[in-house]
Each structure stands twice: as C-alpha cells, then as structure tokens.
C-alpha cells in the first residue's frame, strides 16, 4: 500500500467509528463492482446510507467534498444500485459524504448527509 492508500484507509476507519458512535450500523466497507466502489455502507432506522469518504491533511487547497465529482457520484450511485439489487431492504437509500480533515487527535469530521 502506498501513502495515499494508507491515508484513505485510515480516513475510512475514522469515518466508520464516527458513524457507529452516531447510531449507525456498518453493513459493508469497500464494496466494489465493475461500475465503481462504495467506501462505507451503513444503516440506521430509516436509511441505507452509501458513504463516500474523502480524507485530506488540510483544507488549504480545497474542501475534500469538492473531490466528489459528478463522475464519481455516478459511479457510487451505479455501485449502490447493484448492491441494492442483491441486498433487499425496506430502507430509503441516501448518499452521504464524510470529510476527514487532519491527522491524529487534530482530526475534524464533517458529515454531509444527502450530499448527492
């Protein structure tokens, strides 16, 4: 794993811990198919949530959420549709972005519900 992949994996682990602390159940992580990937799939009492996690050392250049382009959103949505076809649920789907900014104890988490 290179440094970028390690940073991304650490950010996804931080986001998963955050979701658990806020009452979500983690259903899956790093779901990949030919259409794309979903970083985290979580659920609460109302929603099945497909989460794109963006990790950055700082927001000096741009906000992490700005890296979730329209093309990236389409790939996540297609992967989510495939997941939903093989995992029956009565829950309403929702697409969130979680930004993990900084490192170690200085991390800031921004959870954007219904981001796209």
Order of helices and strands: HEEEHEE
What is Rg?
Answer: 14 Å
How many helices? The count is 2
What structural class do helix, strand and pairing data support?
Answer: alpha+beta
State the helical fraction. 25-40%
**Number of beta-strand segments:** 5
Average pLDDT taken over every residue = 92
- What is the terminal separation in angstroms? 30 Å
Strand proportion, as a percent range, falls in 25-35%
What do you see in this structure?
The chain has 116 residues and is an alpha+beta fold. It is 31% helix and 34% strand. It contains two helices and five strands.
In short:
By secondary structure, this protein is an alpha+beta fold.
Highlighted features:
alpha+beta, single chain, five-stranded mixed beta sheet, 5 strands, 116 residues
What is the element layout, followed by pairings?
Blueprint lengths: L2 H19 L3 E8 L4 E7 L3 E10 L13 H17 L5 E10 L6 E5 L4
Parallel strand pairs: 3-4
Antiparallel strand pairs: 1-2, 2-3, 4-5
């Amino acid at each position: 794993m290179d440094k970028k992949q390690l940073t991304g994996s650490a950010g996804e682990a931080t986001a998963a811990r955050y979701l658990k602390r806020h009452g979500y159940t983690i259903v899956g992580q790093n779901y990949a198919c030919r259409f794309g990937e979903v970083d985290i799939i979580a659920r609460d009492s109302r929603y099945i949530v497909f989460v794109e996690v963006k990790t950055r050392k700082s927001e000096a250049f741009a906000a992490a959420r700005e890296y979730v382009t329209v093309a990236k959103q389409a790939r996540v949505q297609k992967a989510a549709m495939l997941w939903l076809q093989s995992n029956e649920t009565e829950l309403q789907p929702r697409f969130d972005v979680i930004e993990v900014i900084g490192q170690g104890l200085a991390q800031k988490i921004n959870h954007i519900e219904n981001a796209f």
